Amino acid sequence: MRILFTSVALPGHFFPLVPLAWTCRTLGHEVLIAVPDHFAATAVRTGLPVASSGAVPDFVDLQAGKAPPRSFEDGLVEHGEVFGRMAAGQLAGVRTLVASWRPDVVVSERAEFAGPLAAAERGVARAEFQWGIPSLDEYRTGAARVLAAEPGGLGAAGLPQPHLVFNAWPPSLRLAHAAGHRGVRHVAYNGDARVPGWAVAPRRRPRVCVTLGTLLPRLGDAARPGALDRVLSDLRRLDVEVVVAVADDVAARWQPLPEQVAHAGMLPLAQVLPACDVLIGHGGHGTTLTALAAGRPQLLLPRFDDQVDNAGAVAKSGAGIRLYPEETGPGVIAEAVGALLDDPRFGGAAESVAAEIAAQPPLADAAQDILALAG
Ligand code: TYD
């Protein structure tokens, strides 16, 4: 059996596909990853076979110089348009791969639309990996608008629907649109960072991990986002050790950092969060699920797209606190982190969500579902 995986060039979108692709491979099937040229080196480091789907502009470049969206919903449609532009750039490459490599199934992350289009044109079965809690229908609206304007981009049938959708969120946190999704256990792939020694040694005082994910630090005020300074200055009020999980080149730009920060650089969150007491994050899919799976409470500071609903679902479960930028006046973050450290109800709720995640069907079941699609 041959399975083609497609993703846009963003780690947060691509990483969730990696454990599933490896599972298919270890079960004896042929796997090929198709990603834009400039992302191929990142994909190759997973050890999976990678083919380029073409030269596609980077998300950050496509966003550069744009005025902020007028509303949250407009922002979603605009991001959908960016993903439509990326799909248009990948379409010829992915069409060629589907025609020549002849996959039995195409599996795409939810914002990659070239894979589903190329698969539908050839009658190939397709599955989607839904990262994030919300339906993000606005992405499809924006992407369809762009692709419809491309010669040969979108037929009258519009964007094809997947035959199967995988969802790694625990059922108690999912929204109504996800009722028919196939549950799958979250397994983190966190890139190629090493596990630091302190993450496998006993800790002497509470440790707080701070991250803005892989994309936010590259958008807007890359010099050093105000959100980070607000968090770090507030944490000075607490007797805690701070570690910052961020790409190494960004960490170098952010120096110097307060003495309280014991580490700043890319950290494998799945191994590091069990060695932390609280996560302060942005509500990104992989980051949030990894903290939940580790049973760690979190303070969520979402900015856009799925981050807002992901954070809302965690807050509703009792495993965390969501704060919007306008709510983070001096002392508020320290107070929230103090509550997450001291009130055992947050940790207890995070532990129950972790148990729910652990009870989801293993990736091997998802691989069987993919094979059944082809059959
Ligand atoms: P995600 O949390 O979805 O957020 P975003 O798309 O905004 O980046 O994806 C980030 C992934 O990268 C997630 O799997 C966690 C991982 N990550 C680390 O493991 N360590 C790090 O230092 C950073 C910055 C990210």
- Total strand count, please? 13
Strand content: 5-15%
In CATH, the homologous superfamily of the largest domain goes by the name Glycogen Phosphorylase B
Q: Number of helix segments?
A: 15
Strand order of the largest sheet: 3-2-1-4-5-6-7
Report the CATH architecture of the largest domain.
3-Layer(aba) Sandwich
Q: Residue ranges: pLDDT <50 for 5 or more in a row? A: none
Q: Give the CA-CA distance, first to last residue.
A: 10 Å
Report the major sheet.
7 strands, parallel
Please give a structural write-up.
InterPro entries: EryCIII-like_C, EryCIII-like_N, Glycosyltransferase_28, UDP_glucos_trans. It holds the Pfam family EryCIII-like_C. Residues 230-373 form the Erythromycin biosynthesis protein CIII-like C-terminal domain. Residues 91-213 form the Erythromycin biosynthesis protein CIII-like N-terminal domain. Belongs to the glycosyltransferase 28 family. With 375 residues, the protein is α/β, with parallel strands linked by helices. The protein has two domains: 2-185 and 360-374, Glycogen Phosphorylase B (Rossmann fold), CATH 3.40.50; 197-358, 3-Layer(aba) Sandwich (Rossmann fold). Helix content is 41%, strand content 15%. It has 15 helices and 13 strands. The protein has helices at 11-14, 17-26, 40-44, 59-63, 72-101, 114-121, 137-148, 226-235, 248-254, 269-272, 285-293, 306-317, 332-342, 344-358, 363-374; strands spanning 2-6, 30-35, 50-52, 105-109, 125-130, 164-167, 182-183, 207-211, 241-245, 261-265, 278-281, 298-300, 320-322. The mean pLDDT is 96. The site of thymidine-5'-diphosphate has 24 residues, from α1 and α11.
